[in-house]
Amino acid sequence: MNTISKLIIPLFVLLVIFYAFRKKVMIYDTFLEGAKEGLITVFHIFPSILAMVFAINIFLNSHILETIFGVISPILEKMNLPISILPMAFVRPISGTASLAIMNDIFVNFGPDSFVGRLASTIQGCTDTTIYVLALYFGSIKVSKTRYALSTGLFADFIGIIASFLVVSLLF
Fold first, then answer.
1. What is the Cα–Cα distance from 42 to 36, expressed in whole angstroms?
2. Which among 4, 80, 121, 130 could bridge 153 via Cys, Cβ 3.0 to 4.6 Å?
3. Residues 129-163: tens digit of each pLDDT
4. pTM, whole model, 2 decimals?
């Protein structure tokens, strides 16, 4: 199996080259056009990504999450829901990488088969990086008025988090 996995990408590249040769496509020129288009796309979405990173850093450095956790913790304790999942639930709509890091910490501290580990995995699968997606996709096509996209996306994430709590509580 290891040998097959090492051969898949080179075989796919050879298949693409063979197909392009057979269709008489100028492979190198087409590659350069695609690379040029990719750089143009990066140039167009960079301001959106930069603004998003800047806003997230301001949000995280304002320590508002600690205040929110302080208010929500007693409510979650009464409902027997783990407080350790809160950072991941709040960061997930903002950053997929940060939420994966938090999930990894949960796995290290509690184990992947624990209630909290299963809950973290379910939240990871039931939610999306809404703010990142909006910044990237809307920024790439230069949409400045997102209308209901942000509120709808965050509402869907909220429903995904609630559904995760319910499903994991019922099944595990």
1. 10
2. 130
3. 998 888 878 877 877 787 898 899 999 999 999 99
4. 0.68
